[in-house]
């Protein structure tokens, strides 16, 4: 029960932090911000790894491998795409 | 690894996410911010792999598969297709959270461990939010990639059907939490997953393509919350923190976008905006459009001292961003002040136009927002609208009957001359007629955006 209370406490604090972090962002960064935070939501990879790494039986193995693959697409794809976008934002005079 | 060490590493990962998100909010630090956040992810992954009793062979299979697919997709995707790509990634994240919730239930049920009720509630939330995120994102992807119609798909008693579905979801969820054990519990969970998948489809199909940016942003928020719920299922702090951060920041971003359209989130989600029924309210605009040739447009531009480009989705479709940048540079060399005014919801995703113009090497100092340009629009010689429609529709200011009424727009009709590059007089994605095309100071330059802009560039070079 104590773990649950603690988790909930952390959850509420993180929600507030999330609201505060994104209050003032220029609209030109909305797309990279969205895809960058989308990559962070791939954190579910941690859960997927635990499932796949401790799987016994066919069902758990299949679920685990699928979850790892899907979450990994989200993580790797998300970060790379965001980086590709941001690499294109250049100030005047700094050409590629 | 010792649990205290693991937790310390998770805290470090969470800090890296927070700092990374913060840095993502400023143009000068955004790229490093993304790198910082990816470092946090790497740390979380490595620490998890060091957990006791982990077997690696299956992890390797999934991880290699996912990395190759994700990496290739990220490298190969065209910048114009970025919105649907983010939608797709987002859906996969949601599905992964669903699978984690399911797997944890399967494990606990197999070991007949009597878990806390709270765990079953968390399993419910993980599969529910994850499932809605998955199919919702797939439909959004289909609409953006034009694999299915971008128009709202409406049917009789739709709200009633969705309401009934939502009630059914709640009922099944409550039953599952009350009776999680045995075959009954397992079947209830399967029904719940199925209903969640259907709910995702049904809640996104009535939303028009023009509103997809808002939907993707909201689904992004959902995928964070799904990860968060999965964190509660497996009692993992880093999932809860990172998921909640994404959930909250996604909601803020969604809200910013709704404000830019002067509509409530409820209106975006439930009004079927852009369908024939809702668009019928506005008056049909009659009048004579004044076409102009590329040569004449060149003569106007050649004499202009200030030019504002207003790009829209049409520029993305025609892949015209490089030609536009070239024209912009020629105009600057000709002594004109050049700016690119970007509406927050132009394109299919917030900041979509910024990304495209950045790809074409337009310095971001030249990209300005409507509130900076509108007050001085009367002093602008020429506003060039490239494939934008609803975001420059004066009906939003003038016609109370118009479905767009009240949306802040870019007042290109206040410029001395407005040149509209367009393929035809057809209405925009939202299906609303545009009186701009018939205004006295508007000139229509018909044709494919890229071909037209290239023709203008050729005129400049030939001179």
Task: Describe how the helices and strands are arranged.
The complex is a heterodimer of chains A (about 100) and B (about 475).
Chain A: H1 2-21, H2 30-40, H3 45-53, H4 58-87
Helix pairs in contact in A: 2-4, 3-4
Chain B: H1 3-24, H2 30-49, H3 57-76, H4 82-110, H5 117-144, H6 158-178, H7 182-204, H8 212-233, H9 237-260, H10 265-270, H11 276-279, H12 294-302, E1 306-311, H13 313-318, H14 321-333, E2 337-341, H15 352-359, E3 367-368, H16 370-373, E4 382-386, H17 395-398, E5 417-422, E6 442-446, H18 449-462
Parallel strand pairs in B: 1-2, 1-4, 2-3, 4-5, 5-6
Helix pairs in contact in B: 1-2, 1-9, 4-5, 4-7, 4-8, 5-6, 5-7, 5-8, 6-7, 8-9, 12-18, 14-18
Textual characterization of the structure:
The complex is a heterodimer of chains A (96) and B (463). Chain A is flat, with a radius of gyration of 18 Å. By secondary structure, chain A is an all-alpha fold. Chain A has helices at 2-21, 30-40, 45-53, 58-87. By secondary structure, chain B is α/β, with parallel strands linked by helices. Helix content of chain B is 60%, strand content 6%. In chain B, helix 4 (82-110) packs parallel to helix 8 (212-233) and helix 8 runs antiparallel to helix 9 (237-260). The radius of gyration of chain B is 25 Å and the shape is elongated. In chain B, 54% of the residues are buried. Chains A and B meet through helix 1, helix 2, helix 3 and helix 4 of A and helix 1, helix 2, helix 3, helix 4 and helix 8 of B.
């Amino acid at each position: 029960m104590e773990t649950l209370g603690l988790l909930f406490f952390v959850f509420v604090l993180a929600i507030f932090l999330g609201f505060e972090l994104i209050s003032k962002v220029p609209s030109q960064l909305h797309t990279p911000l969205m895809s960058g935070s989308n990559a962070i939501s791939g954190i579910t990879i941690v859960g997927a790894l635990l499932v796949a790494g401790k799987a016994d039986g066919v069902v758990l193995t299949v679920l685990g491998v699928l979850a790892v693959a899907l979450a990994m697409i989200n993580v790797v794809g998300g970060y790379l795409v965001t980086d590709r976008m941001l690499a294109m934002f250049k100030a005047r005079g700094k050409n590629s | 690894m010792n649990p205290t060490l693991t937790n310390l590493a998770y805290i470090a990962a969470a800090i890296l996410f927070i700092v990374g998100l913060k840095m993502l909010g400023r143009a000068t630090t955004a790229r490093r911010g993304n790198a910082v956040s990816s470092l946090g992810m790497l740390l979380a992954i490595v620490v998890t792999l060091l957990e006791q009793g982990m077997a690696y062979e299956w992890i390797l299979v999934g991880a290699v598969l996912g990395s190759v697919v994700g990496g290739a997709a990220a490298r190969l995707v065209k910048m114009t297709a970025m919105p649907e790509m983010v939608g797709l990634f987002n859906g996969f994240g949601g599905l992964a959270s669903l699978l984690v919730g399911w797997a944890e239930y399967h494990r606990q049920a197999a070991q007949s461990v009597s878990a806390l009720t709270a765990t079953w509630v968390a399993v419910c939330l993980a599969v529910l939010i994850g499932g809605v995120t998955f199919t919702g994102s797939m439909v959004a992807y289909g609409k953006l990639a034009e694999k299915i119609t971008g128009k709202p798909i409406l049917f009789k008693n739709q709200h009633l059907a969705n309401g009934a579905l939502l009630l059914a979801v709640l009922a099944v969820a409550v039953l599952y939490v009350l009776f999680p054990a045995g075959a009954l519990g397992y079947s209830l969970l399967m029904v719940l997953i199925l209903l969640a998948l259907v709910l995702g489809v049904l809640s996104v199909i009535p939303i028009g393509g023009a509103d997809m940016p808002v939907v993707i942003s909201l689904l992004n928020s959902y995928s964070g919350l799904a990860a968060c719920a999965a964190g509660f299922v497996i009692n993992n702090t880093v999932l809860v923190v990172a998921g909640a951060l994404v959930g909250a920041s996604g909601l803020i971003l969604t809200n910013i976008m709704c404000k830019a359209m002067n509509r409530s989130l409820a209106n975006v989600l439930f009004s079927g905006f852009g369908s024939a029924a809702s668009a019928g309210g506005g008056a049909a605009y009659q009048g004579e459009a004044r076409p102009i040739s590329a040569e004449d447009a060149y003569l106007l531009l050649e004499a202009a001292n200030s030019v504002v480009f207003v790009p829209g989705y049409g520029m993305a479709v025609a892949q015209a961003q490089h030609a536009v940048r070239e024209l912009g540079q020629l105009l600057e060399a000709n002594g004109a002040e050049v700016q690119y005014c970007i509406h927050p919801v132009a394109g299919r995703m917030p900041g979509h136009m910024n990304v495209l113009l950045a790809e074409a090497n337009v310095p971001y100092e030249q990209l300005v927002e409507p509130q900076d340009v509108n007050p001085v629009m009367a002093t602008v010689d020429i506003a060039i609208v490239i494939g934008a429609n609803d975001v420059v529709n004066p009906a939003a200011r003038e016609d109370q009957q118009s479905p767009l009424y009240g949306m802040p727009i870019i007042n290109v009709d206040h410029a001395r001359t407005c040149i509209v590059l367009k393929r035809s007089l057809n209405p925009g994605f939202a299906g609303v007629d545009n009186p701009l095309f018939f205004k006295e100071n508007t000139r229509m330059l018909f044709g494919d955006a890229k071909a037209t802009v290239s023709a203008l560039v050729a005129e400049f070079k030939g001179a």
